[in-house]
Amino acid sequence: MLVSIILMAAAIQDQNNSPRKTDGRIIISGDALKPNALEKTFSSFEYSLAGVRSGDVAVPRLIVSSVPSKLKDIRVIDRRKRLFFRMILPLILTANESIQSERVRLLKIDAAMNARSGGENDMIPGNILWVKGLSAQYGVDPLEDDLSMAELISFLKLRVAPIPASLALAQAVEESAWGTSRFAREGNALFGQWVWNEDTGIVPKEQRAGQAYSIRAFDAPLDSVRAYARNLNTHWAYSSFREQRAEMLNSTKKMDGWALALTLERYSERGEGYVESLHTIMRVNHLQSLDDAELVTPDTMKNG
Fold first, then answer.
1. What is the pTM of this model?
2. Residues near 147 by Cβ (< 8 Å), separated by ≥ 6?
3. Residue 70 — φ and ψ, nearest 5°?
């Protein structure tokens, strides 16, 4: 069988624009997305959930180009679950890695500003421009909100932070029916995000009365994960999520996906019932054991 795997290396630059490390990814597409082939690819990199949970295995940068249409044909439920989690976990960690890179630079700028006697008046112009660009990316207008640079950075620290893998996995399961929903198969939509423009989404066959909405479609599953993270990190409905996450990071440096799920009643009209579903998915599938998972660049990328 022809395995269609495209190797792609993207260099992450530091503040001086010099290569810091290589974010090597393996993009899986075509026939390689069929369940049997996808499982063989994961196994060829010794990528297993048991290994990740034990800490013996890091997660390779294996990125699916689309949600496999044949997931729904897998009749053995445990097999479908394992394949879904192995497929989605690298996407979540990849999105989180980009966010964490932004957060690290933001915290360094904040520390440098606080260390200078002149405070924000002594900030490097390039850092000022970068912070303002980041604020636009995270939906903050410092002029409209009348924020000083110090206030802007403080505000951004609430928004620029990763999402716990356990929580993201549970929501992906709930919102995409383990990747088998029409929205997942046709639009790579893993998190059920609404839009009010049919041109950018998939219209549900049965819409709620009086609400002309669509489910946002994406070119690739990774785009769906990134949009989901941006949603939690910017929308007013999830301000409690961001505040509790900040308290966790400030006190323990770690995030508790189980506790943070309690802040997401507004993610679904089901409210508390939705949170209970997330907790059930997390508990039954031992998802909190995946919160410490880390990415690794496969040897084929290091040597290639």
1. 0.88
2. 140, 155
3. -90, 5
- In the three-class reduction of DSSP (H, G, I as helix; E, B as strand; rest coil), residue 114 is classed as helix
What b/e string do you get for 17-32 counting C-beta neighbours within 10 Å, with b at 16 or more? Answer: eeeeeebbbbbbeeeb
H or E element that contains 290:
none
Separation of alpha carbons 276 and 171, rounded Å: 12
| 210 close to 233: Cβ distance less than 8 angstroms | no
Q: How confident is the model over 226-248, as pLDDT tens digits?
A: 999 999 999 999 999 999 999 99
Tell me the one-letter amino acid at 42: F
Tokens of 91: 């996407």
CATH number at residue 293: 1.10.530.10
Residue of 27, 28, 10 lying closest to 19 (CA atoms): 10
Domain housing 207: 4-303
Joined together, the tokens standing for residue 281 give 């998915």
How many domains does the chain fold into? 1
Which residues does 254 contact at the CB level (< 8 Å), separation at least 6?
Answer: 248, 291
Do 281 and 172 form a contact (C-beta atoms < 8 A)? no
Rounded Cα distance between 287 and 35, Å, is: 22
Q: Which residue has the tokens 């190797």?
A: 7
Give the β-pairing of 194-195 and 214-216.
antiparallel
Q: What's the maximum distance between 2 C-alpha atoms anywhere in the chain?
A: 65
Amino acid, res. 272: E
The pLDDT score that the predictor gives to residue 214 is 85
Give the pLDDT confidence of 181-217 residue by residue, as tens digits. 999 999 999 998 877 765 667 877 766 555 667 889 9
In terms of Cα–Cα distance, which of 110, 106, 108, 134 is closest to 120?
Answer: 110
